[in-house]
Amino acid sequence: MQTVIVVYSRTGNTLKVAQALAGILGAEIAEIRCQRNYDGAVGFLRGAMDSVMRRKPSIDVAQVVAQPHDLMVIAGPVWTGRAAAPLMAFLAGRPKLPGRVALLLTHGGSNPAKALAEVETLVGAPLAARLALKEADIKGDRFSAPLTDFAREAIGEADLPLIG
Questions:
Q1: Out of 14, 79, 86, 145, which could bridge 34 as a Cys pair, Cβ 3.0 to 4.6 Å?
Q2: Is the pLDDT of residue 6 over 60?
Q3: Are 119 and 83 contacting, i.e. CB atoms less than 8 angstroms apart?
Q4: Is 0.85 surpassed by the pTM of this model?
């Protein structure tokens, strides 16, 4: 199954999980690069404001996204209860989505339900799989089992052996 993981990561936590998932699925990674600086404490506040105000920053995504895939996993952090502004900017650009789309969110402890629902609405179809991981579990490397379950659900094969 041709799979691409489109990921935005401000601190590296989401990228860490996306790389682990890519190893499990044998997927390509396409990082969303944001022209707006979200680094450090000031960047954190800027990101929170962009999320609350629903601003869509300018982004760049690798051309691999435009190639045909069977599955796209969209991955990013939750900011103020919403999917991160760069992730929302990607979806607002109406990318060509394959028949199977899955969502992987990371968060510091806030409830990701609103972000999950909002992304599913933008995708325009039910998600093949969804997973929200807490930052503490990522930093403590306690995400392997839920990530493997997510990968199986995303490809639609509960008992399929995975690459990684």
A1: 86
A2: yes
A3: yes
A4: yes
Residue-level length of the chain: 164
pLDDT at 79: 85
| DSSP notation for 94-160 | -PPP-SEEEEEEEESSS--HHHHHHHHHHHTS--SEEEEEEHHHHHTT--HHHHHHHHHHHHT-TTP
Domains, the chain, in order of start with CATH, read: 3-155 (3.40.50.360)
At a CB cut-off of 8 Å and minimum separation 6, what does 25 contact? 1, 3, 5, 71, 73, 151, 154, 155, 162, 163, 164
Measure the CA–CA gap between 142 and 126, rounded to whole angstroms: 27
